[in-house]
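Quick bug: Aminopeptidase P N-terminal domain-containing protein output formatted oddly.
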Amino acid sequence: MQILVRKLLHRISTKQTIGLRAYSTKKFIDVGQPTPASHPQLMKEGEITPGIGAEEYISRRKRLLEFLPENSVAILAAAPVKMMTDVVPYTYRQDADYLYITGCEQPGGLAVLSHECGLCMFMPETSPHDVNWKGPVAGVEAALETFKADKAYPMRKIHEILPDMIGRSSKLFHNKEAAAQTLTDLKAFQKADYYGKVKNLSKLTDVLRWVKSPAELKLMRESASIACQALLHTMMYSKTCPYEGMLAAKFEYECKMRCSQRMAFNPVVGGGPNATVIHYSRNDQKIEDGDLVLMDVGCELHGYVSDLTRTWAPCGSFSSVQEELYDLILQTNKECLKLCKPGANLLDIHHYSVRMLRKGLKEIGIVNRNGTDPYNELNPTSIGHYLGMDVHDSSTVSYERTLEPGVVITIEPGLYIPSSFDGPERFRGIGIRIEDEVLITETGYEVLTGSMPKEIKHIESLLNNFSHGLGMESCSNVKAATN
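Here's what came back:
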């Protein structure tokens, strides 16, 4: 077992998530986001965003046009900037649909796609003051040269051009959640909305984004690999630093040291009873000796996210009760993975997991003597969801839709037994989830998070043989500060 873990650690320490290329000293135009000229160590010639070439973006636009009814228009707004205070913005993240079609990672833009004009982009205009405070941003020239738009105009032209395009269309598809006031204030848009011509663009883009291309899958594999490496280091760190906040910080640090841009979501680090709160986010407690910790985490790499969960005992040993529950979740995880293949669907896999967990709850004595079924109280979640540019990707695609090669899902059985549970006391306050990221292939499935240990014997060996001294100094500082 120790040899296996050493090999795993060696792979992690030597793996290069993104290959380095020679640095270029040539002058380049800064368009407000990485380009092959400005970031040759990150991007290849012909790529609009890291890993995704211009040909793929153009192909996406053509496919969306095929979905658009005749004489209709798709309008995509960039995500708005959200402010923490009057002058301090939150970290910006682009709307997934806008990014998927344009490749533009910056705020302030509007894109129009139609059979008549192709891709037309309206770009923000900046002043010297804006550039001094926020840096350069992409304008009309970048829309044409970098993002390969067919037409481009400054945003001030929107009142002259867009109303006529809307007026001539029979239907208008729009990413409503990123609605830009510049668009919604137009009388032509308001009229179209009043007459029921405005439709939800996600109904079309979710289907396009559901099956990933080879380039997208490469980024998703890399994102999953980064998350696994980061969580493995965090797991080893937990024995000497059993604090929720420190484990959240450790995971984020390890991800960003491997070139991830951000977390896919706020890390869930639930120690003891906190693990029974499915989307626990406070991360402010010490994990008591003998308690489990549940970490649901993920990171984002160039627009593509990962999502995995592991549950373990930072002290290095599961109790018999914890092991009994954990084994039920682990076996459910493994059996559900076997069902992941073309022709299956998430809803059927979910129903199978429910039957398996209900049977297990009865066998280990959690079902009340009066025969009531507590399952929905102990697990109100689905077995999984689609994954891609968003954590719950392609959310309008039904879980009854037949899975196809190139679709990525999660498999995440769990049990969350609150301290107030009317059942055997020994199980109260225990939350366990084991989540894997799964790619549907031509012949079955590939577990993208398969490098992350989930067998109890592997986890205990990792904690007891490879975590000595990690984080000891920082934890000592915490203990001193709290005494």
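Actually, after a second look the formatting is fine. The CA atoms of residues 23 and 40 lie 6 Å apart. Closing.
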